[in-house]
């Protein structure tokens, strides 16, 4: 009986020692990983790397270090790695199905790094959302909407979606439509609009501004306005022209389209 008690005590001491050591390694390892990730993120070697690539690499290093930590703890606890591999292999199908979404997002993140449809700071529209790209991690990309909402999008969804990047090109075209009464002289309205376009300092002269009669109804004429500007000036030009052309028409006494009255 004493031999059994002694053996049990030795076993408990050994197991307890392994558990305590594993906990110590877990605590110290977690602290070291956090410090290492911060050092990697602030590394000068990554200063020249584009923002989305940098965030992706930092996320990759962080997850890789945690995987190494978990393997180390399993080894300290005395669990044979062959047994762990056998269990994972036998449960491979179930694990694969459970992680299908995560693996799809991981693959999507890798493909985004290879093809680079957008960069950090680009304004994009994809997967039903739009915003400024903040970072790309292993599994998710983070966008900041124009009204300051943080949007997290799975990389798999982004990779399989049509991505519209509004920031890639240096120039963008602003398209506007204005209407007036059918009684107005089209040439005069066109000259009035062109005068406003040429007076706007952010509207580019090349490609040349465009303003022409493009359609209408029995009560109205419709003019299409197209101008080019720098991408960063798009919304300024859009709102400035909308206001200034409307004000110019009002100052010249241009009549609005007649309202059709429907009688029964």
Describe what this molecule looks like in 3D.
The chain is of the alpha+beta class. It folds into three domains: 2-90, no CATH class; 104-165, Roll (SH3 type barrels), CATH 2.30.30.60; 171-251, 2-Layer Sandwich (Alpha-Beta Plaits). 52% of the residues lie in helices and 20% in strands. It contains eight helices and eight strands; from the N terminus they run αααααββββαββαββα. The chain has helices at 2-41, 51-76, 81-90, 92-98, 100-115, 155-159, 186-199, 234-251; strands spanning 123-126, 129-136, 140-144, 150-154, 164-165, 171-181, 210-216, 220-230. A five-stranded antiparallel sheet has the order 4-3-2-1-5. Strands 6-8-7 form a three-stranded antiparallel sheet, with helices on one face. Helix 1 runs antiparallel to helix 2 (51-76) and helix 7 (186-199) packs across helix 8 (234-251). The longest helix is centred in the first third of the chain and has 40 residues, at 2-41. It is elongated.
